[in-house]
Model the fold of this input.
Amino acid sequence: MDKIKTHRELNVFKLSFEAGMEIYFLSKSFPKEEVYSLTDQIRRSSRSVSGNIAEAYRVRRYPKSFISKLSISEGEAAETQVWLDYALKAGYINNETHLILNDKYDHIIAMLVNMSTKPENWAF
Done:
């Protein structure tokens, strides 16, 4: 197996970036009155997931910092799921879209937990 050289090669980063972009384009259709609330919140939290994964990868030689950044990313992923719940209940997204995106974030969270429980596998 080839050694991972950058955060962009991590499957969890790729999935979180993809999900964040899906949310960005989806949130463009949210009502204008949501621009400073739900739209901003869901965009911020979804982008923060991949941002914190990138930071975690850069500090992986320090297990406590690595785990901390992954934990922040996990929290942001869970927060994004809450905003998806609000978007569903408000009628801004349909059940299928909610299910697909929620499932992606469940997978992201599972990968982050796995990385956090074995930080030594990511050190160099």
Notes: The domain at 7-118 is CATH 1.20.1440.60 (de novo design (two linked rop proteins)).
